[in-house]
Amino acid sequence: MLGNLLIILAVSSDSHLHTPMYFFLSNMSLADIWFISTTVPKMIVDILTHSRAISYVGCLTQMSFLIIFGCMDDLLLTVMAYDRYVAICHPLHDPVIMNPHLCVFFVFVSLLLSLLESQLHNLIIL
């Protein structure tokens, strides 16, 4: 958790790191923080209370958030790979292709696709 916070802090504070790759890396770190925050608090409570019970709604909610942030990690890795492909294969067109609007759009689409996949899994279970 601390490492992810340090990555976000470093990327936001240093202007040399305001590139698409580091933008996606900081968003991935944020998704990792949320991913960890969905399971660890419940696990700590279960360990301290020696109880392993979870309600049906609690299970669906935890599973939903786990899928959202896990899928978002995977999609952000895919977008980072595309960014590296553009940087290597089209180095002169890289700033034009990977503009800030497209980077924000990719993060937004990865969040929307993660939400869609999570809701699909919830509908299958329900």
From TrEMBL:
<keyword id="KW-0472">Membrane</keyword>
<dbReference type="InterPro" id="IPR000276">
    <property type="entry name" value="GPCR_Rhodpsn"/>
</dbReference>
<keyword id="KW-0807">Transducer</keyword>
<dbReference type="Pfam" id="PF00001">
    <property type="entry name" value="7tm_1"/>
</dbReference>
<keyword id="KW-0812">Transmembrane</keyword>
<protein>
    <submittedName>
        <fullName>Olfactory receptor 7E24</fullName>
    </submittedName>
</protein>
<keyword id="KW-0297">G-protein coupled receptor</keyword>
<dbReference type="InterPro" id="IPR017452">
    <property type="entry name" value="GPCR_Rhodpsn_7TM"/>
</dbReference>
<feature type="transmembrane region" description="Helical">
    <location>
        <begin position="97"/>
        <end position="116"/>
    </location>
</feature>
<feature type="transmembrane region" description="Helical">
    <location>
        <begin position="20"/>
        <end position="41"/>
    </location>
</feature>
<dbReference type="GO" id="GO:0004930">
    <property type="term" value="F:G protein-coupled receptor activity"/>
</dbReference>
<feature type="transmembrane region" description="Helical">
    <location>
        <begin position="53"/>
        <end position="77"/>
    </location>
</feature>
<dbReference type="GO" id="GO:0016020">
    <property type="term" value="C:membrane"/>
</dbReference>
<keyword id="KW-0675">Receptor</keyword>
<keyword id="KW-1133">Transmembrane helix</keyword>
<feature type="domain" description="G-protein coupled receptors family 1 profile">
    <location>
        <begin position="3"/>
        <end position="126"/>
    </location>
</feature>
